[in-house]
């Protein structure tokens, strides 16, 4: 069962509400003897942390992570390493403003999970979205920092490729640029445009959607467990489980519908090293649910932040009609901070499938085969 | 673990290769005392069966299903019903042409899983795609026929909404039309166009992609298990696990990226019955991973059939370059037959979440709440 | 996967080492709207806490539990209740003596997991047994306190029925007595004997095994998921997973091997209430893996504490022979403190199966059936 | 979820009722390239098959297994091998006597699952015990035949060590003898006694219980997933899930309760090969839930066959009192045929843990460690 757990051999289980005492995560199944410190995790958390620019929420969440189990000092190297036992991670919540939630505690904010949690459970922690808050994604990023270390040679990077109707120019793609602007945008020119564009959105009290692309390089060929544990099926679940995500695609994605078989085929030749060389990557690195060895490319669409300053029609939990507007600190485009979250989820999927593959197959067969 | 199983409380496990002796499925966790006959399942299988028009493969697969366990006659009604024990389903493979596979048994057809299965497992049943064949989806459709009966009032319908770059006119949408044309297309005019269009594709020995939309009505509010077992996360995995699918979206999907918070909000009022009434359904029936009670709307993109008559560059398993072209009987647009498969997977997700919800919560709370 | 998780719909995941910063547990799938406070859990933890008599270890572990998520105040009742989201529990470790572990950090204590953890993982937290320490069972007891509340009417009680070769007199069984002596023993006379007997064991620096019996009353008929999720199979796993347990039995258990079919049959009549009445309970409340409605009776054997003051032959991790003796504070009979742990695990199994049954079947059929 | 599935990376799912059309099993996760034929499986099935002596049921079940998926011919060796895809196994039921079930179809046979299935599901296939029949164990034995091939060097053997109150003389233990008598008994003298003893039981229309011991040799050190996926916890679940089993123990088992820490300690020295050498095996090859490298020893108790010729008091499903006696063909001691079933379940646990261990850890660390 997977209420609040994700993965099988590399499994994460998160807990915690936005304004509760703490949030946390258990990472179970991590291989032993992997160097791991709180600083490793903190570095990733800092990339996601809000309040770093005017384009993300101004909440102050230092998000200081504490590793409470699963690591120990290796005497011979002096380094702290994983032990193979569950890694417990805890972040205390510190910016829980004792504000008045009177306006929204009984009303259902359109686009939020307020109504559905209430109908399902009959009770909900309404403070800051409770369990449905994107605050939970801090623990995904923390877990992802560990997952990244599990697959040797794995590099997972994400980039914002669209805000509103505005797509970046892929010809300008520069991974270095991603770290230089507050949008994780690989196109410097688009980033400049987005700054102005989002200022307008923000000043209107409005919000806007976005599309994020995640590229995983160094994924060995052979990962994936057909037919229901396909690598792409798990990626789809992983990315769709992120708050506000409404679509996921692999490789050409929805564009593939418009292609012919000739156009979409990824032809193969032998490379100079005698290894198979794909001449294109329409498949996004996955065929039949199994990785090809090419970069795995996934994209996901994030809807506009539901919390906006303009009032919307709604109802309350007692069966009355009521209008709702959201005060307070919010992201005009939640898609921005979804970039490191998407990376983390992709890393978790790769770690899980790497261990599953190693479990079933041991070592991949050496291609080419002797005749 | 979910190599070849899907779902938790309602779990399906399939087995079988395209040209092996038989394919089958175990449906575990189905509630007892649900009327079920082979005819119920056969009716769904017949919708997916190939060879029914010139637009699908001409293979002859009668796909006669046999229920070998999990049902018994209820003496008082004389009806055959489920017993709560695992339902075993078997279809014998009868059209296994003893043809010569010499040309493709060592060569990797671009776009197929030939290469990835070989690299992963070091051995593969190359006949007709083996385990990676869409033949496996017959068992999904069979399982889906059972799943449909689990959630009272559930109606799951699918429709083909795009072939190649050509989208249907949603203004022409007529569910009745879906059963009248060989494309599962709800727009009669588009269906007529698709017939000509696909004839051209077919005569060229080419293939083309498609987009399918699945609508589930009668989904009670409250289904979904946040935060990793979200209803939409499981739908994404279910649909992405279907052969040749490259993208999945819920509600507005990727279009949501271009919307503002105001545009995307589904406002609420009270209906004449005093119940909450959504004024729109951009969310596709899911908020925070939990069903709202509105229709659940999902779309998925299917890539063009990889088997085409025009030769493509490739390599073989012994490390030589080789060209590949596919002879024989194939679908010019595999997206067409994916419609009943998509319906089946959505039904399975709903059945699973219905039982999970009933397990955790018992009865949903009665909304509105007493003040 | 179940490295550090137990259960399905009611699932616990624990983390933490004996001498690490903290131990914790995530309880996922708990139904909403169940009253729950830290005091509810603390009461159970206090029953297990060491240092309460001279017969258990003298470590000081206040074991103060903190609920960090999954609960919220129900405004209408003012009570804190579960919300259906994961319940995070954390206990900070406070009695981590900065003692010298030099003697045992490289040596394998016979009967302990030192050698096996080292061989498996290549690294281990040797302080106090690390993850293999019985300290982990504090979180089982905490989770069990929640599980007890899930099944209406469930009462789970445990009793120590044997220490060393000495069995209690079952004719003296008095549940009230269990709380009056430091052994959880239902036979006052046996308890007096055990006090002397264990004093002798303790003064010799030795240790001794024990047998515990758990009785669950109020288990509704129909719980159990045949054939691999049988109620007794899950009970066996649950109890065998407790530290130092080497045997589990249900009802007559191993004695059943010596019985004839006539002797072992639990005959049935109709009770005065018209309901089925079993005339005996050799089966221990479970037939075919499903509860009968009678009390569920399980017993488990706990081996003697492996930490003893008398030196034993061993080897070290560098391949040298070395003797080991254990200094410090230890239980002469770890079986005693296993009583509340056994209760907790049985409660967790019942909660899980109750939710699973409610998921698959909804309401049990009403017996007798109309003719 | 595990209604009818067992295991994680090596997972078996069975289906089928005693008198339904067929029984079957899906083995998912089996590594590729393992030689496997129907004859391999048939050999194990034949050991379990009934009707081979007067001490087991006289039903004729040829139990001819068909592999319908998951295998393919390796061209280079000409051998049939596993492909890594799910292995489907089917046995058609052929000896379904069209007998009159009138007497038991509404009555609950004491000791059987009749009552509990009826109360749980409200419907049951009463013919021959339906799903609760030991017929299901044929598929366990079939799956076990595959599991045995997964762990290199693994040898799993079982023996009957007690019938009724009569234990074998362990000094006479001879594994060769197990195959020479109809009881799987390693003590020739005891076997002779059992023949007479069981004749008496059988002629009286009675039945008797038994104890079986399973020994797994060649289990590498390091298997086991603490703390809830311990090797012994999974063994306990596996064995307790077998029909009629009421107790499971590892190593000394319940006898450990009577031992002191000194007696129970398995001391270690270095062997002539420089590897750790245990001087005893009270632990039964498992410490802290992880294998030590010694033989894993498990025992389980089987209750007497519930079907006896002497009438017992009972009730029927319509709420009337009624007596029950069982006519027809039954085993006087079901424990006998449980021997190959127990072996199979132990083999399945070992295969699963072997793959899990290989997944998480890859290669075990090489002991001893460099200083």
From TrEMBL, chains A, B, C, D:
One of its GO terms (molecular function) is chorismate synthase activity. Keywords: Amino-acid biosynthesis, Aromatic amino acid biosynthesis, FAD, Flavoprotein, FMN, Lyase, NADP. Pathway: Metabolic intermediate biosynthesis; chorismate biosynthesis; chorismate from D-erythrose 4-phosphate and phosphoenolpyruvate: step 7/7. It is an enzyme of class 4 (lyase). Its cofactor is FMNH2. NADP(+) binds at residues 48, 54. It catalyses: 5-O-(1-carboxyvinyl)-3-phosphoshikimate = chorismate + phosphate. It comes from the Bacteria. Its EC number is 4.2.3.5. Reduced FMN (FMNH(2)). It holds the Pfam family Chorismate_synt. InterPro entries: Chorismate_synth, Chorismate_synth_AroC_sf, Chorismate_synthase_CS. FMN binds at residues 131-133, 243-244, 288, 303-307, 329. Homotetramer. This reaction introduces a second double bond into the aromatic ring system. HAMAP family: Chorismate_synth. Belongs to the chorismate synthase family. This is Chorismate synthase. It comes from Chelatococcus albus. The gene is aroC.
């Amino acid at each position: 069962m997977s209420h609040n757990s994700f993965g099988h051999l590399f499994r994460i289980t998160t807990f915690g509400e936005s304004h509760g005492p703490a949030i946390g995560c258990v990472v179970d199944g991590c291989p032993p003897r992997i160097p791991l410190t709180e600083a490793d995790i903190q570095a990733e958390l800092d990339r996601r942390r809000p309040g770093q620019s005017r384009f993300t929420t101004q909440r102050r969440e230092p998000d200081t992570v504490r590793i409470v189990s699963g690591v120990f000092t290796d005497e011979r190297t002096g380094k702290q390493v994983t032990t193979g036992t569950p890694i417990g991670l805890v972040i205390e919540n510190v910016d829980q403003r004792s504000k008045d939630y009177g306006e929204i505690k009984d009303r259902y904010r359109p686009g939020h999970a307020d109504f559905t949690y209430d109908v399902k459970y009959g009770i909900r922690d309404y403070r800051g979205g409770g369990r449905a808050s994107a605050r939970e994604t801090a623990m995904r990023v923390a877990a992802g920092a560990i997952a990244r270390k599990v697959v040797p040679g794995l590099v997972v990077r994400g980039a914002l490729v669209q805000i509103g109707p505005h797509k970046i120019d892929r010809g300008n793609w520069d991974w270095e640029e991603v770290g230089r602007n507050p949008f994780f945008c690989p196109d410097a020119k688009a980033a400049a445009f987005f700054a102005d564009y989002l200022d307008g959105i923000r000043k209107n009290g409005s919000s806007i959607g976005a599309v994020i692309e995640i590229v995983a390089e160094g994924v060995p060929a052979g990962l994936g467990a057909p037919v229901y544990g396909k690598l792409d099926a798990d990626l789809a679940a992983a990315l769709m489980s992120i708050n506000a995500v409404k679509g996921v695609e692999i490789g050409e994605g929805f564009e593939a519908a418009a292609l012919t078989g000739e156009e979409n085929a990824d032809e193969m030749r032998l490379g100079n090293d005698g290894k198979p060389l794909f001449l294109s990557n329409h498949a996004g690195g996955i065929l039949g649910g199994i990785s090809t060895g090419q970069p795995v490319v996934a994209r996901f669409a994030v809807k506009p932040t539901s919390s906006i300053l303009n009032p919307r029609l709604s109802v309350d939990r007692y069966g009355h009609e009521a209008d709702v507007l959201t005060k307070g600190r919010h992201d005009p485009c939640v898609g921005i901070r979804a970039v490191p979250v998407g990376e983390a989820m992709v890393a978790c999927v790769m770690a899980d499938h790497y261990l599953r593959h190693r479990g079933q197959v041991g070592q991949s067969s050496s291609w080419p085969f002797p005749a």
